[in-house]
Structure formats: C-alpha cells, structure tokens
Design brief:
heterodimer; A: alpha+beta; Ubiquitin-like (UB roll); two-stranded antiparallel sheet; 3 helices; 27% strand; globular; B: mainly alpha; Ferritin; 6 helices
Chain lengths: 113, 223
C-alpha cells in the first residue's frame, strides 16, 4: 500500500471509529476490511445507499456511476466508489439527506434506498 | 356456526371496504414497511426495464460472438420477464410505476448499462460508425456489473420480506435465482474472453431464448 489516510466514521449514535484507507482504495472497502458495518446497495456509486456527509477532508468520487458537482459542493460522498485525498471525517447514514439535496437541485435519484 | 369458529372471516378492514387491502394490512402487521417496499420495487423495476433496453444494444455489438450474443439475449429477455413480474406486485401493494418513463429510468436502482465507447450514452450516432471500444470483453464487463447490482437489489428485497411477506419474497427469490445465474454466465464468458481462464458457470443453454425458468413459469400471468 502506498500513501494512506485516516478516515473517521461518525455514526448517528455519536460513536466514532477510525480506519486507515489507502490512497487507491475505496473508503467503503477499507471500512469493511476493518470490520465496520455500513449500509450499501448497488456498490457502483449510483443509488445513495452508502452516502456520507464529509465533515472534514477531501475525496475523489470520479469512479461513481452517477455523481454530480452539486453533490460534492454539498459535501456528500458515495464511499463505495470514493478514494480519500486527505484524512477525512464523515457522518454515516446520510442517504435521506443526500436524496433531499438531489431533489432540491432537481437531480435524479432512486427513491427506495 | 359461531363467528369465532372462523377467525379469519373478519378483521380490521370492514366488510365491503375497497379503500383498504387485507393483503397489505397482513404484511404490515408482520413488520413490513409497505411504503418503503413499494419504492424499492419501483426502483428495481426501473433497473430491470433499463437493463432490458441497454442489453438490446449490447447484444448487437457481440456480432460474430454468437455464443455471447445468445446468452446476452437470454439475460435481456429474462430481465424483461422480471419487469413484468414486479409490476403487478407494485400495484397490488397500492403503488404505481411513474407516469413518465423518463422519471422511471432516472430512479432506477442500478446504473445504466451503456455500450462501452459511447461516453455514457452521450456519443452522437453516426451511421455505420465503428464503436472501437465496444469489444466483447468490455461489453461482458458491463453485463457482469449490471447483474451484480441486480443480485444486491434482490437480496435486499428477500431480506426485507423473509418470513413477513411471502408473496413478494417468492417473487424476489425467483428473480434472484436468475440474476445469480446471469452473473455466473458472465463470469464464465469474461474469464475466457478477457483473462484466458476457465471459471465454469455450471450451466448450459436455456431451452429457448429468455426461458426464465424461475420467473416465467406461469404463462398466463407473465406471458
């Protein structure tokens, strides 16, 4: 593994867990390897099931199948296809919030995740 | 005979009331969030429908690879069969598919299975143009990932309905059976085409194109 970053996952309960993620690794894959249980569904950066709010740090979601500049500006990442560009702190379980952001911007999204 | 001898002859839904559904009430009572389930089924139906559409294109570009083409055709027709199977269940549960097909495609639960080399479908069509990146291996990769998304989708529906909603569970399990077979086919073909190795699917050809042995065994319901 080359360069690594630390990603802190903040759960709705307030608990936080930290995981080391390689620069070429998807955040969700690293979290799973570390034993974290996080939601996901399509795992192709499409359906928002794995959405997080990025509280600190930078990321690259270029591999997501559907991801908009508005999503990034609003601080939402799809971690199944996101690589870290720095240490990060993220709030998990943000599917509904990201869908609201898509709706507010008139952007498409599945409704059932 | 006393009414108590027939405990299922009445319930919370008043006799003659057509505004409520016992078929919905019964699964809600067992813990199913029907509103959420319907939304998931609509997303899933959208994914099956768009996949059917995109596979129509993908199979055209497998010219000369007749075995690949036939298997893509099986998966294409079976995904259509899945759409046909899901849709009645959405209405039974009080839902509807979107009135506008654009809305339907936009909310599909899985990505568009674009032909490789078309810039996610945005490439302008030029008559008889060669789409250089639409190689058999690239097409098989698209097909494989589409099937994987479907497996994840139907596994989730099975999880949500197991032991609570036997009708939706049965439908989801039938579809899942076929999606798992589709994945096995495309692993088999892609391994040989791209990697030069054999990873057998364990399957042989369908009896007829799009046979859908699990999801289309009732011709009247899903012709």
């Amino acid at each position: 593994m080359g360069k690594t970053f630390t990603v802190a996952f903040e759960y709705p309960s307030g608990e936080t867990e930290e995981v080391v993620v390689g620069e070429d690794e998807y955040v969700l894959a690293a979290a799973r390897r570390a034993g974290l249980v996080l939601p996901s569904l399509c795992e192709q950066g499409w359906d928002l099931a794995c959405a997080v709010q990025v509280l600190e740090g930078e990321w690259d979601n270029g591999d997501a199948r559907r991801y908009y500049a508005e999503d990034e500006r609003a601080g939402f990442a799809l971690i199944c296809t996101a690589k870290p560009l720095s240490d990060m702190r993220v709030r998990t379980h943000q599917t509904a919030a990201m869908r609201s952001e898509r709706d507010a911007n008139g952007l498409p999204t599945p409704r059932g995740t | 005979m006393e009414a108590s001898d027939k405990p299922h002859a009445s319930g919370k839904v008043p006799a003659g009331d057509t505004t409520q559904r016992v078929g919905v009430e019964a699964i809600e009572a067992r813990g199913v969030d029907v509103e959420q389930l319907v939304e998931k089924l609509i997303d899933a139906a959208g994914a099956e429908f768009t996949t059917y559409y995109y596979y129509t294109i993908l199979r055209m570009y497998l010219a000369g690879e007749e075995d690949y083409k036939e298997i893509c055709e099986d998966a294409r027709l079976e995904d259509r069969a899945h759409f046909e199977l899901i849709t009645p269940r959405i209405y039974e549960l009080g839902g509807t598919i979107p009135y506008d097909i654009r809305t339907f495609a936009d909310r599909a639960g899985c990505p568009d299975a674009y032909l490789p080399g078309t810039q996610d479908g945005s490439k302008a069509h030029v008559r008889d143009e060669i789409v250089a990146d639409a190689t058999p291996a690239a097409i098989l990769e698209v097909l494989l990932e589409a099937e994987r998304c479907a497996i994840r989708t139907w596994s989730e529906v099975c999880d949500l309905t197991f032991g609570k909603d036997p009708r939706t569970y049965d439908m989801a399990a039938r579809i899942l059976n076929e999606e798992v077979e589709h994945e096995a086919w495309f692993i088999d073909l892609l391994s040989k085409e791209r990697d030069g190795v054999v990873r057998p699917s364990g399957h042989f050809r369908r009896g007829e194109p799009g046979d859908a042995p699990y999801s289309k065994n009732r011709g009247f319901y899903n012709p």
